[in-house]
Amino acid sequence: MIILGINAYHANASAAIVVDGQLISAVEEERLSRVKYAAGFPTKSIQSCLSRAGVRLEDVDHIAVPRDPGARVGRKLRYAMRMPRFALERVRVMRRFAGIREELAAAFQIHPTKIRAQFHRIEHHRAHMASTYFVSPFDRAAVLSADGLGDFASSMCAIGEGPRMRTLGEVAFPHSLGMYYTALTQYIGFWKFGDEYKVMGLAAYGQPEYLDEFRRMVWADGPLSFRLGLEYFCHQTQGPDMSWREADRTPIVGKLFSDYLEKRLGPARQPDEPLTERHRNLAATMQAALEEVLVSYWNGLAAKSKQTALCLAGGVAFNCVANGKIFDSTPFENVYVQPAAGDAGLSVGAAFAVQHEILGRSREFQMDHAYWGPQFSSTEIRQTVDGVDSSDNVEIAELSEADLCRTTARHIARGRIVGWFQGAAEWGPRALGNRSILADPRRPEMKDILNRRIKHREIFRPFAPSIIEEAVGDFFEKTHPSPFMTFAYPVRPERRKDIAAPTHVDGTARLQTVSRSASPLYWRLIRAVGDETGVPVVLNTSFNDNEPIVCHPEEALECFRRTHMDVLVLGNFILERKKLPVSKEESVERFAQREN
Ligand SMILES: [Fe+2]
Fold it and tell me: Which of 143, 161, 354, 392 is the most buried (most CB within 10 A)?
């Protein structure tokens, strides 16, 4: 039984393939098209999934898309009359869904009748919920989806029992925690699609000074419900402008906050204006008000579902700062967040919704690692390494796994920045040890060094630590697994100096807990770092430079060439830049001065 899930005509386009109840591959289009958050039709991802499963499109039995035009039709029609431009855009998207068989056939150059799969439309939030609960380790759990907007709802919750989910409640458009967060992100001067996590990082630098005002903007109005003060927003009058540029498939979100919001809080920050204390306090308040609503929602769901396990999905589930507070503020004891919690994850959710809710199959799969993307053979990696020439000025060695870990660990311990490329690409927006840039977490200056030399991003954004799971309790005040970097926990005060670089200004860190069974090579490397330094932790940031995370070994090599990494590990090959200066810090400073 082959099921293909497709998230199309939407940001974070993606595909996933499930064969006989097991996920075989899941890929976000941006990794292959090299356009961040790419929208449109995910032809390359579908090709990649089919090839990993070793099947043809003609072999697929079921194709599922996470959109149901029949959901909340009355509400859709009412708003369509009020917002004709938005309605036209939705009609355009729906038309494309209606022609998905033809689009697939054209992309794969076969006649549409050759596609024998049955097509299914899964409601957006049911697909989000399926994307987490059906791949979680739990037989029974409370399930919550919360995002900006999908099928005219912004949130849904359920109780999952075996291969079924029973809906407990939903919140419909225009009330939306995702819209709230995006609107305020824009107001603070960040307009690009996906900028919300930047403001979440900024929030740690401020104080929630505007809570009274923000509580009029968003509040819980029942155990499973919340409301927006609609006068602060404009998506309910003009329709949220959520589309994409056809030329490069970059998603676009139009302005979501109203003039009234500016009247109450002062003028919006322009993107080129400096960030002041006021902006930091606005970000802190935005985060605090969201957390108040989430705590109420989580507790309402715990009471109604009577469960101690919780599964989260939807863009709001990426709020690792809020997620880290679940254990202290609710009765939930175990929480699972799928690595692609946002809309990319819908392809996995749609496929598993078919497997369990439509076909009634029992559950046999658990997503305990994130390595579901494209992978490359040792021959392909060797070909890339063969392309290195004298102008690259590197020394190349091919090492056994044990030597590779020991040598790489030594480089990290000496303050060198290492590009680490292994196995299959990660599913979801985080690099989790297969497409990562790694550095020594003990050195406080490493954050600035990485920013200057490689990442070129805002200084207020934190880096993350990866830690072997056996050591989590030594460094953090919580030990609940965070294999996909979806929780931020307080670092024990006495250990903050040991992981100074990835500890955020508020004393927390968005950690990845690394288990030996799920990530054997990465675990071995981090343990080797621990052998060198006494700290079994690495600073882990995604392998990229203002682009989607590298996917192919050639892209890793190009990123290494472009930036100023010291070492590149490609499979079993280690490439080291020659003529490393004696004092790395000195050279970094010289480099920084040159750059400035
Ligand atoms: Fe969504």
Answer: 143
With CA atoms as reference, report the closest residue to 347 among 23, 580, 21. Answer: 23
For the full predicted model, state whether its pTM sits above 0.90. Answer: yes
Cβ-Cβ contacts under 8 Å for 452 (sequence gap 6 or more) = 588, 591, 592, 595
CB 234 within 8 A of CB 256: yes
Nearest CA to 513 out of 550, 476, 461 is that of 476
- Centre of ligand 1 to C-alpha 153, Å, is 9
Average pLDDT over residues 551-571: 95
Ligand 1 center–CA 25 separation, angstroms = 20
User: What would the two tokens of residue 478 be?
Assistant: 């919580």
For 152, which DSSP code?
Answer: T
Residue 585 reports pLDDT greater than 60: no
Give residue 316 CA to ligand 1 midpoint distance, Å. Answer: 9
- Can you read off the two tokens belonging to residue 233? 């927003």
Backbone angles phi, psi at 237, to 5 degrees: -105, -40
Q: Would you call 400 exposed, middle or buried from its count of C-beta atoms within 10 A (0-12, 13-18, 19+)? A: exposed
Q: Can you give the pLDDT at residue 395?
A: 95
pLDDT value for 90: 66
Q: Give pLDDT, residue 244.
A: 62
**Model confidence over 489-514: pLDDT tens digits?**
999 999 999 999 999 999 999 999 99
The CA 178 to ligand 1 mean position distance, Å, reads: 9
- Calculate how far, in angstroms, residue 68's C-alpha sits from the geometric centre of ligand 1: 13
**Looking at residue 476, what DSSP letter applies?**
B
> Quick one: which H or E segment has residue 383?
helix 378-386
Amino acid identity, residue 186?
Q
DSSP 233: B
> What does the pLDDT look like over 9-62, one tens digit per residue?
888 999 999 999 999 999 999 999 998 888 889 999 999 999 999 999 999 999
Name, in order, each residue with C-beta under 8 angstroms of 176's C-beta and a sequence gap of 6 or more: 147, 148, 149, 154, 155, 228, 235
Contact 253, 193 (CB under 8 A): yes
Partners of residue 437 on adjacent β-strands: 419, 541
Band of the pLDDT at 240, cuts 50, 70, 90?
Answer: low
Q: What token pair was written down for 508?
A: 């927390």
